[in-house]
Design goal:
The complex is a heterodimer.
Chain A (H helix, E strand, L loop, with lengths): L3 E6 L8 H10 L8 E5 L3 E3 L2 E3 L2 E5 L7 H5 L5 E3 L5 E3 L9 H5 L5 E4 L4 E4 L4 H5 L5 H5 L5 E5 L6 H7 L3 E2 L11 E4 L5 H7 L9 H41 L1
Parallel strand pairs in A: 1-12
Antiparallel strand pairs in A: 1-10, 2-5, 3-4, 6-7, 8-9, 11-12
Chain B lengths: L8 H5 L29 E7 L8 E7 L2 E7 L12 H4 L1 H5 L9 E3 L8 E3 L2 H19 L4 E5 L1 H14 L4 E2 L1 H18 L16 E5 L9 H12 L3 E5 L5 H4 L3 E3 L6 H14 L5 H7 E2 L1 H7 L5 H8 L3 H14 L3 E3 L11 H14 L51 H10 L7 E5 L3 H4 L3 H9 L3 E6 L4 H4 L3 E4 L11 E3 L4 E5 L14 H11 L11 H9 L6 H7 L1 E5 L19 E2 L3 H5 L19 E6 L13 H4 L6 E5 H6 L7 E6 L8 E6 L6 E5 L19 H4 L4 E2 L6 E2 L4 E6 L2 E3 L24 H15 L5
Parallel strand pairs in B: 6-7, 6-13, 8-9, 8-12, 9-10, 11-19, 13-14, 14-15, 20-24, 21-23
Antiparallel strand pairs in B: 1-2, 2-3, 4-5, 4-15, 16-17, 17-18, 20-27, 22-23, 22-27, 25-26, 27-28
Helix pairs in contact in B: 4-19, 5-19, 6-14, 9-12, 9-13, 9-14, 12-13, 15-17
The chains are: A alpha+beta, B alpha/beta.
């Protein structure tokens, strides 16, 4: 089974923002929103031990994606290949997924008032093209592929220690990895730790109370109907037999 | 909020959802975008050459029904190999930028009042020609001067050649790479080229002296640089600031600004002392080695330590790294080298270091230049007139090694003083002279001396504000330019810039404007064509290159001879075919034949040296108003040493005002307190503070580094303008803040390093500045 992932090579990345603009162009992301981002970080530390890097981020296509759980309509869902996508026809623009995302990778696109986010350029990928950010990256710092394929560059880099942005508090299985032989990623993690998913009370009420009751009711009705049907069939059968 | 109407929204009505959906794609896939996937059949892919900076990357423009939807790198181009940077990607936003100049305009109010009326091209050109001819009649043809940049500017350069005025200048020389090119020509007989022929990908050691690759983005160079990093190159980064390049480096050398030559001389000394040079190359291909040996005898690492504040041990260690890695050492020659006004000599020291390590024509060093395989048909035009008077900027006479690219600051100076003879009209084509040429006040005052100022631009930059006539040019996505023929490097190539969309407004390409203007100036004999395509077709006739193929593919490549064969002795383009470590040419004209370290003035107390550099999403001031680029880095931040700033009572992100040694103040700028900045200098990113009032989205803000760069040292050899001799102090509530701690950054304090003490009175500081200023200004003639 394919599982798409991306590795950002922090040794190569020069914080040039080409990925960000290529994505903006391809998906017409209106300013000031973005589907992927490069947040430059100033040099920090004490001479001579100074680190300078940036947070190169995009949707983590998490294994245990809080956005999928948060979506009340099922518009946000995880494909079998691991890519988290938004079905625009089902999205009602409620924004609950935005609050749920620990990485800030979602926004409401004012062009259609629906949620937009990185989808790993899945339609390009399915047409054998690279994601646009990978295609344009002048530093060769973005590697995309199937992490379940042991021969892919992505899985080799993950195997050899590429890390991802999770914390002891929030770990929902992010799938963007960072190759980091200069050990700069802790600076990124300290500046941009994953945020605990926010679940508003109405939504908690919805998922924890209303939805279970609803399912229970539907289930009870369904099983009741089924039982009734079975009973009727059983009776009917005996009728035929007669 | 940007335009709410989607560029592609019209496609939706056409139901243009991917027709050729491959089997196995689930329906929801196609709904994951705000915009449907455009039918690949509908996309016209037109190759061209990017114009967002001067690196000339090959691009492929995706056009649907006459609308540009995105830009990609052209994989055929050996320069950028299918990649493009943020600016290249944002070309779409430039094309559709709402504040573009859309019509020719003639000024109706006072100059600078901002009142123009839209006119036809006919009227604008008649008016311009009339004014230029009036100046020529009254003061001579040479009283017409030109400031220009890049391909479109070259068309005007030619026009001036045809007309007989020698007074043209481009900031690409005196404010950029002029001194470097002169130094390499003096040493090797040829320049290092642009794109620079550096084999960074295969280098084992990369030496960057002030080159902040990564923040200064030239796509092909970054591809090679990052390949070099991945291949394990050790980087030696010499910079007072912890740049992105420094963050990739094994050695960051936070050098005292202005002392780079001392460091390079110490490296040369060490390489010679340790016999780490390429003996064979020196014997067969150089002259003046023994003079060099004597010259650097005293330039020990200990000597350099006291000057540069780089520990002698580090100088030895880095020199050893170079010796061990030679010849796979790439000593980057830099690009903007107009720092202190002794820049030819510093660049000479760099060229000499690279030479004795034997890196010329070696893998991991400098690529060879190749003979370009095509000779183009040149247009059959009459001979050029000889200008009746010498150039006013002194290029070629006062500054003996300055070439016809000219000296912008000297042209401004001559206009201001009307000496050696009056300059009464300027054409400013595709260059923001306020953002590039130092001393904006002089530029402004020089404009007052003019009878006529015509400005050709795409967007309303600051010079357009003072224009008498505005000639709006097509963007690079709407026009032809002359062919791009690049020799040497990875591969040689020929590339074409062609229109990818129909022009959106009443703008014109520069080739058409010069032709029409030429006709009106009586120069029609130099323009024997109607369409630019005819020129290109004619140039290609008999070369074996198909014009159709060139248009279709954008780029045609030819192999380059990259490196010397084993044992091959290269014939350099110098008088004796050898590398001139010792320069007789310089000696004959009374300059130092070998580079010497010349100290520059330290900042007065309470002041910092103003250093500056590029930000990765901007090309000088050309891109600041591009909404896609501006959103990422909308404002510059002033880098200041953390400890120093804290001692001044500053807080991170606080807004301050900068005041330079002459009392010129900036508007409010946010500070970035960082350990990655030397305590005696502050860093201000270049390319911000576009303050043309015509750009409606921008409030007028004087936050440009060039606003504070009022002093410059002219390099006596090249005429380049050294810009890093300006000092600023930090004001909060109109009160100057003075550091109360002395930070010794590397544990070494050079003599005369910024004495950071509090006691000095305002008056004393002022007196000192005046004293220093008088010694700082070096006329150079």
């Amino acid at each position: 089974m394919t599982k798409y992932a991306m590795v950002i090579d922090m040794d190569r990345c020069v914080t040039c923002h080409a990925c960000e603009v290529a994505c903006r162009a391809h998906y017409e992301v209106p300013v000031p929103y973005y589907r992927n981002w490069v947040h430059p970080l100033p040099p920090q530390g004490v001479y001579p031990d100074i680190k300078k890097t940036s947070y190169v981020g995009l949707c983590n296509h998490c294994d245990d994606a809080p956005c999928v759980k948060a979506c009340p309509t099922g518009a946000t869902y995880k494909r079998e290949d691991g890519v988290v996508v938004v079905d625009k026809d089902l999205c009602i623009g409620c924004g609950l997924c935005i609050d749920a995302c620990p990485y800030g990778s979602r926004y409401i696109n004012p062009l259609d008032d629906k949620v937009d986010k990185c989808d790993f350029c899945i339609d390009r990928v399915l047409h054998n093209e690279e994601p646009v950010c990978v295609q344009t990256c002048i530093a060769g710092a973005r590697i995309f592929g199937d992490m379940n394929d042991p021969n892919s560059e992505v899985s080799k880099l993950i195997e050899s220690g590429a890390t991802s942005n999770f914390s002891s508090l929030v770990n929902v299985g992010p799938n963007i990895y960072y190759k980091d032989s200069r050990n700069v990623f802790p600076v990124v993690k300290a500046s941009f730790p994953p945020r605990e998913p926010i679940r508003p009370t109405p939504q908690k009420l919805w998922t924890n109370v209303v939805r279970p009751i609803m399912w229970l009711t539907i289930g009870a009705t369904f099983f009741g109907q089924l039982a009734a049907l079975a009973l009727q069939l059983f009776k009917g059968e005996s009728d035929i037999k007669e | 909020m940007a335009n709410k109407i989607s560029r592609r929204s019209f496609l939706k009505t056409g139901g243009a959802i991917s027709a050729g959906v491959a089997a196995g794609i689930s329906a929801p896939t196609l709904k994951t975008k705000a915009v449907e996937r455009v039918d690949p059949q509908k996309i016209e892919q037109i190759p061209s050459v990017c114009g967002q900076c001067f690196w000339r990357c090959g691009i492929i423009c995706n056009v649907v029904d006459g609308k540009l939807i995105s830009i990609e790198g052209n994989p055929r181009d050996p320069n950028n190999r299918g990649k493009i940077c943020a600016r290249g990607n944002a070309g779409v936003a430039l094309l559709y930028e709402k504040d573009r100049l859309k019509n020719p305009q003639i000024r109706v109010g006072e100059r600078g009042s901002g009142k123009w009326r839209d006119v036809s091209w006919e009227e604008a050109l008649d008016y311009t020609a009339d004014k230029l001819l009036q100046v020529a009649k009254k003061y001579g043809v040479e009283a017409n001067a030109l400031f220009q940049h890049e391909k479109s500017g070259f068309e005007f350069f030619d026009l001036f050649q045809y007309w007989g005025s020698p007074n043209t200048a481009a900031p690409s020389f005196a404010q950029c790479k002029g001194s470097r090119d002169v130094a390499f020509e003096l040493t090797y007989g040829e320049t290092i080229g642009s794109p620079e022929r550096l084999d960074l990908a295969n280098s084992k050691v990369i030496v960057l002296i002030g080159s902040h690759l990564g923040e200064n983005i030239h796509t092909g160079q970054i591809i090679d640089f990052t390949d070099g990093i991945a291949n394990g190159a050790q980087i030696i980064c010499v910079d007072p600031r912890y740049s992105t390049a420094a963050s990739k480096a094994k050695w960051w050398l936070p050098i005292k600004p202005g002392t780079d030559t001392a460091l390079v001389l110490a490296w040369i000394h060490e390489v010679i002392k340790q016999k780490g040079y390429d003996e064979n190359f020196i014997r067969t291909s150089t002259t003046g080695f023994s003079e060099l040996v004597n010259h650097v005898d005293d330039c020990t690492p200990e000597w350099a330590e006291k000057i540069t504040e780089i520990p002698a041990a580090t100088i030895r260690e880095t020199a050893k790294a170079m010796m061990d890695a030679k010849p796979a050492v790439c000593v980057h020659p830099g690009r903007h080298v107009a720092w202190y006004g002794n820049d030819v000599q510093r660049s000479r020291s760099v060229a000499i270091l690279a030479a004795i390590l034997g890196t010329w024509g070696k893998k991991g060093g400098y690529f060879l230049n190749s003979v370009y395989p095509i000779s183009f048909n040149s247009l059959n035009i009459p001979p050029l007139p000889t200008p009746k008077r010498e150039r006013v900027d002194g290029a070629g006479w006062r500054y003996p090694f300055a070439n016809s690219e000219g000296l912008t600051q000297e042209l401004v100076k001559a206009t201001l003083t009307q000496k050696p003879y009056p300059i009464k009209s300027w054409i400013v084509w595709a260059t923001d002279i306020f953002d590039s040429v130092p001393d904006q006040t002089a530029t402004r005052k020089a404009i007052d001396q003019l009878d006529f100022l015509a400005v050709g631009e795409i967007r309303p930059t600051k010079p357009t504000w003072y224009a008498d006539v505005i000639l709006p040019e097509d963007t690079y996505l709407e026009r032809y330019n002359s062919l791009y023929a690049v020799s040497g490097w990875h591969e040689q190539y020929l590339a074409i810039r062609q229109p990818v969309v129909k022009r959106l407004y009443n703008t014109r390409p520069s080739w058409w404007i010069v032709k029409e203007l030429g006709k009106r100036l009586g120069l029609e004999k130099y323009y024997p064509y109607e369409e630019y395509e005819d020129v290109i077709r004619y140039q290609l006739r008999g070369t074996g290159i198909s014009y159709t193929k060139l248009k279709r593919e954008g780029v045609i490549t030819f192999p380059a001879k990259q490196f010397l064969n084993p044992g091959e002795i290269y014939s350099f383009n110098t008088s004796d075919k050898k590398v001139h470590l010792y320069s007789d040419e310089l000696n004959k004209l009374g300059f130092d034949a070998l580079p010497k370290f010349e100290p520059v003035n330290d900042p007065p107390e309470g002041y910092f040296r103003l250093v500056y550099g590029q930000m990765p999403v901007h090309t000088m001031s050309r891109t600041e108003s591009n909404p896609w680029l501006n959103t990422m880095i909308p404002q510059p931040q002033l880098w200041i040493n953390e400890t120093t700033a804290r001692s001044m009572g500053l807080e991170n992100n606080q807004e301050v005002i900068l005041e330079n040694q002459e009392g010129i103040k900036s508007d409010k700028i946010k500070i970035l307190m960082t350990p990655g900045m030397r305590p005696d200098a502050v860093f201000l990113p270049h390319g911000f503070g576009l303050n043309s009032r015509g750009l409606l989205d921008f409030t007028r803000k004087e936050i440009s580094d060039n606003h504070l760069i009022t002093n410059y040292n002219v390099d006596p050899i090249s005429g380049g303008s050294g810009l890093r001799i300006n000092f600023v102090r930090v004001l909060v509530n109109d009160t100057p803040l003075v550091p109360t701690v002395t930070v010794s950054f590397t544990g070494i304090s050079a003599k005369n390093v910024t004495g950071i003490k509090q006691e000095k009175s305002e008056q004393r500081i002022f007196d000192e500045i005046i004293k220093k200023k008088s010694s700082t200004i070096q006329e150079g003639c």
